[in-house]
Each structure stands twice: as structure tokens, then as C-alpha cells.
């Protein structure tokens, strides 16, 4: 009898240990709950609101669909999906363990696979869109004739999405949701890797080489290179502009603004993905050490920060555009005045209203006896008239900012450009051979 009692106690003890290991609910740590469940959820919600608002503002202006801003428009769409996916994946997963909610657990397991796939697809899509926008900016300031990048932006955007789907779409089939033995409640289900995802050559050739190099390493290296190349080119152009007296302060400000916006966007992407590259490299070198008892908390925190930094970068895009780009800032403020404040019966703030919607454009006009340099104040959504023609009120809204010496220097420069035709993609002919060479 004593031996039977001992055996029964050992069996019960083993069952209790197995139950505690596989079926017990492990509540999340307080710090992780605050970081992911509160701070991360709030930032992701702000990102969804900001990017939805940005998409509406950009989409309502038809001109943006045929300019480089179309990349920002679709980038905002990608940020909406990945931020919403973050809320549904990470905070909800912590809430279901913290509150031991079977309802949240059932909902989370039902959409977990599709949300993981969507989030990864749009994270890769946003990286490709940033690379495409940076590449177009680089070839523009480098005076490289590449009409495909300018006239087929929609094709490039679709290609970015297709490449992301090819690279990350199969993630849906790499995870299986199965019953967790005899567990019930919140822990009744669990996720395991599918058989084909662990088979060769899929695991090494596709998951390791193709997917990670294409979606992690390549965009990171391209953005890093293009960022410094653009800064170098703009610095050269800025120094060259100082040699001419017609290099107005507005011209230099536009160069600095364009540089700041592009550098800020690319740097936010690089900063948010730097930790991801470090963790991914560590996983390749020694993944077992990351699961050890001493390093696993750091690994869990790093994984949470990788996802959180991605959402932070998405939420920061609208503030970056508002600070760096005068045209976007103007359209956003006008939309707030016309739509939001009007519906709330709040009087728009007009202290800066008459000036904030005017962007400066430098134009060079062939007057017949040489080129004149004009500074034109225009609104972003109005059609720019000829620099020497009056408007409907009979007023001339142009002013000459050049001198006689500037006419001679500019005439020689324009003559060389026309002769070589090497910079034809930077000129847009208007009335009387007006040339637009500075665009914000």
C-alpha cells in the first residue's frame, strides 16, 4: 500500500508539473504590460489616426497622384495596416493573459495568422516604398535621365507590394494553430511551426537567404547609401548655388527643407530597423543562446522594441512632413481650417493664414533680350500664370530678383543647357520659354 501511494503521488506530482508548464496562464510582467499594452497601443492608435488623416489630405489633391508624393500616399496606407495589426497582435495578446479572458483568446487565435502575415507584408512594403522614393529623389538631383521612375510610379508601387507578398505571404502557412493537449480556457490552443516550413531547402534557401536578405538587409543598405548620397549631392548643389547672385534665400531654404525631410524619413526607418538587424544577426549566429535563462528576458524586450520602434517610425511621418515640407503643411492646415474647424463652428486661426499657404517658386523667363529672374508667390493648388502676365485683378504678383550681371550669367548657362540637352528632364517649358528649375 505504501508503494502504491508513493506511485500515485508521483503521478499526480508529474501531472501537476505538466499542467503548470503547459496549461497555466503566465501573466505578463508589469513593465512589459506598460510598454506594449499601454504605450505601444497608444502610439499605434495615434499612427492609425495620423496616417489616415495624411492619406485623406494627399488623396484629395489630384496632382499628388502624378508626383513623387504618391509614394507618401501609399506609404501612409501601409502604415495604417501595420499599426492596426500591431494593436490586434501584441496588446491584445497581453490583455488576454492578464485578464485571463477566454473571449479575447478565442478572437486572437482566430486572426493571429492573417494579422502576422499582413503586418509583415506591409512592413516590407513600406521599406520598399521608402527606397523607391529615395531612389527617385537621388536620380533627380543627380541629373540622371530616368523617365521610367517618373512616369511609372504606380507600377513601381504595385511591384513593391508584389515583392513583399512573395517574400512574406507564405508566413500564413508557416504557422499552425492546434489544440494544446488537454488544456482548457485561455491556453486551449497553441501555435506550432508547420512541417514544410522546417523542411529543406525552404528553410535555408527561402526563409534565410531570400526573405531576410530581400526584406531586411537590402532595404536597410539601400536607404543608408541613398541617404548619404543625397546629402552629398545637395551639399554640392548648395555650394554651387552660392556662386550665383540669383541664389535666393528661398532657394536655399527649399534645398534645406527637402534635405531635412528625406533625411528624417530615411533616418527614422534606419533607426527603427537597426535593432531588428542586430537581433536577426544574433539569431543567425547563435539562436540557442537567446533562449537561455539569462538572455531570454533581453531577447523578449528586444523583440518588443523592434515592433514598437516600427510603429513609432510610422507615427512620426506626419510630424516630419509638417515640419519639413511647406506644401504638405499648407494643405494639412487648410484641410483642418476648411473641414474640421468649420464643422465645429470654430473660427480658423488667421494670424498666419495669409502667408502660410504661399510657397515661393523661382522662375527664369526669356524676355527676348535675355533671361530675367522672378520670385513668384503662389498657392499650392492654383495654376501659375506667366511671370510677366497680370492676374485677373490686373496686378502683377511677380518681382524681379536678378540684376544685369545675373542676366548675362543665366543666359550663358541656359544656352549651354539647351545645346547639350543633358538636363532636359529638369526643365518644364511654359509661356515664352519660361523654365521651372526649382521645385519644392
Structure description:
Helices cover 66% and strands 7% of the residues. It is an alpha+beta fold and 440 residues long. Among the domains are: 26-235, Rhodopsin 7-helix transmembrane proteins (Rhopdopsin 7-helix transmembrane proteins, Up-down Bundle); 358-436, no CATH class. It has a four-stranded antiparallel sheet with strand order 5-4-3-6, with helices on one face. The chain has a two-stranded antiparallel sheet with strand order 1-2. α2 packs antiparallel against α3. The model is unreliable at 243-247, 351-362, 375-388, 392-401 and 422-440 (pLDDT under 50).
Which features characterize this protein?
alpha+beta, Rhopdopsin 7-helix transmembrane proteins, four-stranded antiparallel sheet, two-stranded antiparallel sheet
At the fourth level of CATH, the homologous superfamily of the domain at 26-235 is Rhodopsin 7-helix transmembrane proteins
Distance linking N and C termini = 90 Å
Low-confidence stretches: 243-247, 351-362, 375-388, 392-401, 422-440
**CATH topology title of the domain at 26-235:** Rhopdopsin 7-helix transmembrane proteins
What is the CATH C-level name of the domain at 26-235? Mainly Alpha
CATH architect. name of the domain at 26-235: Up-down Bundle
Inertia-based shape:
globular
Computed CA radius of gyration, to the nearest angstrom: 29 Å
What class do helices, strands and sheet pairing give?
Answer: alpha+beta
Total number of beta strands: 6
Order of strands across the main sheet: 5-4-3-6
Mean pLDDT: 75
Protein name: G-protein coupled receptors family 1 profile domain-containing protein
Transmembrane segments: 34-57, 69-90, 110-133, 154-173, 208-228, 260-285
InterPro entries: GPCR_Rhodpsn, GPCR_Rhodpsn_7TM
GO molecular function: G protein-coupled receptor activity
Amino acid at each position: 500500500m505504501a508503494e502504491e501511494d508513493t506511485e500515485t503521488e508521483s503521478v499526480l506530482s508529474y501531472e501537476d508539473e505538466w499542467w503548470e508548464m503547459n496549461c497555466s496562464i503566465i501573466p505578463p510582467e508589469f513593465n512589459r504590460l506598460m510598454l506594449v499594452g499601454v504605450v505601444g497601443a497608444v502610439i499605434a492608435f495615434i499612427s492609425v489616426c495620423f496616417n489616415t488623416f495624411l492619406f485623406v489630405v494627399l488623396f484629395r489633391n489630384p496632382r499628388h497622384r502624378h508626383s513623387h508624393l504618391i509614394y507618401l500616399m501609399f506609404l501612409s496606407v501601409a502604415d495604417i495596416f501595420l499599426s492596426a495589426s500591431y494593436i490586434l497582435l501584441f496588446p491584445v495578446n497581453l490583455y488576454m493573459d492578464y485578464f485571463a479572458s477566454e473571449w479575447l483568446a478565442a478572437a486572437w487565435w482566430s486572426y493571429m495568422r492573417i494579422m502576422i502575415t499582413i503586418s509583415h507584408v506591409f512592413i516590407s512594403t513600406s521599406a520598399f516604398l521608402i527606397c523607391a522614393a529615395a531612389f527617385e529623389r537621388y536620380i533627380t538631383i543627380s541629373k540622371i535621365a530616368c523617365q521610367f521612375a517618373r512616369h511609372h510610379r504606380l507600377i513601381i508601387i504595385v511591384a513593391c507590394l508584389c515583392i513583399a507578398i512573395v517574400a512574406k505571404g507564405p508566413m500564413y502557412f508557416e504557422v499552425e494553430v492546434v489544440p494544446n493537449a488537454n488544456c482548457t480556457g485561455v491556453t486551449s490552443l497553441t501555435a506550432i511551426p508547420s512541417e514544410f516550413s522546417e523542411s529543406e531547402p525552404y528553410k535555408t534557401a527561402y526563409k534565410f537567404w531570400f526573405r531576410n536578405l530581400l526584406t531586411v538587409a537590402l532595404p536597410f543598405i539601400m536607404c543608408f547609401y541613398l541617404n548619404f548620397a543625397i546629402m552629398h549631392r545637395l551639399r554640392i548643389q548648395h555650394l554651387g548655388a552660392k556662386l550665383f547672385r540669383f541664389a535666393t534665400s528661398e532657394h536655399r531654404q527649399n534645398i534645406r527643407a527637402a534635405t531635412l525631410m528625406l533625411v528624417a524619413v530615411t533616418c527614422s526607418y534606419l533607426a527603427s530597423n537597426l535593432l531588428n538587424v542586430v537581433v536577426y544577426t544574433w539569431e543567425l549566429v547563435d539562436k540557442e543562446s537567446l533562449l537561455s535563462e539569462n538572455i531570454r528576458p533581453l531577447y523578449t524586450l528586444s523583440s518588443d522594441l523592434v515592433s514598437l520602434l516600427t510603429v513609432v517610425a510610422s507615427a512620426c511621418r506626419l510630424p516630419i512632413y509638417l515640419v519639413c515640407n511647406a506644401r504638405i503643411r499648407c494643405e494639412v492646415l487648410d484641410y483642418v481650417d476648411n473641414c474640421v474647424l468649420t464643422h465645429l463652428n470654430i473660427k480658423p486661426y488667421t494670424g498666419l493664414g495669409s502667408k502660410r499657404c504661399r510657397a515661393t517658386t523661382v522662375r527664369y523667363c526669356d524676355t527676348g533680350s535675355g533671361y530675367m529672374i522672378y520670385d513668384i508667390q503662389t498657392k499650392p493648388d492654383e495654376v501659375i500664370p506667366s511671370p510677366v502676365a497680370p492676374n485677373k485683378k490686373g496686378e502683377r504678383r511677380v518681382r524681379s530678383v536678378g540684376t544685369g550681371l545675373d542676366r548675362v550669367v543665366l543666359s550663358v548657362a541656359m544656352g549651354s543647357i539647351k545645346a547639350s540637352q543633358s538636363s532636359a528632364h529638369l526643365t518644364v517649358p511654359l509661356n515664352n520659354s519660361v523654365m521651372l528649375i526649382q521645385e519644392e
